[in-house]
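DATA SHEET
Item: assembly model
Revision: 1
Owner: S.N.
Input lines:
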Amino acid sequence: MADTTATHATAGPEGTKRDFLFLATGAGLAVGVGAVAWPFVASMAPDAATVAAGAPLDVDLSPIQDGQIVNVFWRGKLIFVRKLTEKEVTDMKAVPLDQMIDPAPFSARVKAGHDQWLVSYGNCTHLGCVPIGHSGNFEGWACPCHGSQFDAVGRVRRGPAPTNLPIPPYAFSSDTKLTIGEEGGKAAA
Amino acid sequence: MSSAHATSTYVPKSRVAKWFESRLPLVGLVHSSFVAFPVPRNLNYFYTFGAILIAFLGIQIITGVWLAMHYDPSAANAFESVEHIMRDVNYGWLLRYAHANGASMFFVAVYVHIFRNLYYGSYKAPREVLYLLGVIIYLLMMATAFLGYTLPWGQMSFWGATVITNILAAIPVVGDTIQSLLWGGYSVGNPTINRFFSLHFLLPWMIAGVVVLHVWALHVTGQNNPAGIPIKSSKDAVPFTPYATIKDVFAVVVFMILFAWFIFYQPNYLGHADNYVPANPSVTPAHIVPEWYFLPFYAILRAVPDKLGGVILMFGAVLILAFAPWLDTSRVRSCNYRPVYRVFFWVFTANAILLGWLGAKPPEGGYVIASQLCTAYYFAHFLIVMPLVGLFETPDRVPGSILETVTGPGKQVSGSGMPAGAAAEPAKRG
Amino acid sequence: MRIALLAAAGLLAAALGSTGLRAEDGHGGVNPPREKWSFAGMFGRFDQAQLQRGFQVYKEVCANCHSMKLVAFRNLSEEGGPGFSAAQVKALAETYSVKELDDSGSEKERPARPADRFPPPFPNDKAAAAANGGKAPPDFSVLAKARTYERGFPWFVFDALPFTGYSEQGVDYIHALLNGYEDPPKGFEMPGSGYYNKYYPGHVIAMPNPLSEGQITYPKDDKGQPVVPETVEQYSHDVAAFMAWAAEPHMMARKALGLRVILFLIVLAGLLYYVKKQVWKKVGGEVHGLQPELHKTY
């Protein structure tokens, strides 16, 4: 279009009118092509069924023993639910922040009043492998892929992972029941 | 595109462009094929259907690739995954309706393209190879469309697949083997839909490859035109860009209005209600018909009360197209100057439409007799009318040049479409 | 040229006439009467209140035998549908139960969630067939698109066009079928089982007449008066409309987008036409169509 416009452009109102026509048409074509691209991109996003299936998930805590790690899935993602032992709670509270790669106090890793329960996503923050529980030097997890290590509340203690295991939205509906995907009664977006 | 390339007037300007062009003359190739390429100046809108067809090949491939991201080619899940696309995937309904109706529009355009070719005698020398490549594209399109229609795994999909694979079983000696190789089992089933999906994904790329050859051949011989005479001087032609480009883009956009009408307001009109019933191997729909674009051939298949005979005639009806360049004995290409054959052309067209209508009717009584008469006429057109009319017809006087058909005899127009000498190469061959 | 075209058209017409047109060949039913639907035509929209009533008919009557496996509870609150609130849908879903595997691998029931699909009345097709005299009642999800009747020439041409367009054959058929139960005409031989229905292909349908006057109590307005009559005619209209929505839940979005796309394309085509004219002006234009008078002069 640009070429055509250039060759035919002549001075005077006639030329200007024609240039405007060519420009408007070129813009129209560009808008049309752009608009057509949208449904294709949108169709690749999670579909309505997948979004709806990501509704909050209830986890019954009563059968979980001290020290045990339970795997659950929410929205297709692995989540660790870990019941800490008394010793682990004490140890984790005592770790100085300056020894951490991604400093986070114990209180930021658990819900107030539920010190024994860690709920975190279960994929290493390096490249997504699943770290092995009860291994490594920090009472937590060690990733078999690239050697990252996490402590008992999922804080990264040895690289290459850059950040702590993220915490999904969840809430305790009672002492023995928690709901993943819900923060204080509200469904997560 | 060597010949067209010889006419290229592209001269790289920048040092980078020169460096690249001396190693791979890609820009020059595109320039000579789609910018400087001389186009007869008398082309009418029937000549924009090539561009429309390329647009639809693109649309079908893109929507198809996107649908494949959500589709599940298994007998157990295919129907539901198509409904999943229709209901849950964002704009999935748009992708699917565009793909399903796109196939129909593709055939609308290809039929206009084919009948335009027959009317203006574009199949005649020196364009036989160009034309044969077109017949191959048409065959590949038919195969692709059939395979695609089986994929939603509704009743029409299942029974269409059953009927067509049974047609192949009519081939003597190897028929049964071919059939069971297609099925991957003892009947149409899960392996069948799985491989049909694979082939349905493959064939469009083969079409794209043959389209490249088709365009290449076109640019060697140059385009035919309503006058059916070659470009003789630069005044007979205009450069492809901007003249043909802008006209093609306009025609494509107009055709898209029709396409959009079907997608948004009549998305199921060209389909069949029974294909919304999941495949059921124990119940055949009362009235099974193929998609509309196969109906004339379906009528020919059913016109013969013999399995092998029907199959031979049906395939023959497509293959006979390939012999048109040698069956037509006329020295004049365009029907514009063939007063007798022109009438036969329209009768042939009406006969083809009638066959299509008969293909949708139940195979009983008067419909069968009518199908037989129409089938006989279809073949007679190629085998009798084409050779004989060419021998006995006195054509009208053909104009001396393309320019004359635009301006009338003896008149001059201001300005030549082409840069001097640019049109020389294809004209010599025409 | 023109003569040839006329001749071809005449030949086509003659051929169509001579082969004997029969409006209802091959399907052995009577064509359903054409009804008025709020969702027909280019600007058609579903009537939310009607879809809600239709869902009630489906839930209270049809769902006892007919599944609707592709429709989820959440769909009832999605845009372009019956327009229930998310809370209503959640409450509705909880009145159903669905089966899932517990941690020990055995089936247990839990209340349905909005994301679940309508639980079918029978565990599988075989059970459905066995409970219904050997023939499973068809699933309702896309039934409104899976049923049609033949319109014949030339009506099928008008059916595709703007303003005379018609794509509600399936809905009309469903409505007609529900009103089509009557005594068999004299001389019609009924087989051992089945019921006579005027509109069913072959007239013998396995389903007994499902609806009767006053069978379903519709919600009343503020004054306690019925909003619509509680008749078979009304029930069948409502449930057919509901099935039309279930078969094509994005119909309203489709028609709305279509309008914008087509208007855009028309404007763009207009612009392109003038650009094309401008470009071709320099070379004096080309032949549009055929010019028979031109070659007659040779």
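QC remark: The interface with chain C takes residues 4, 8, 18, 21-22, 24-25, 28-29, 32, 35, 48-49, 52-53, 55 of chain A (CB under 8 Å).
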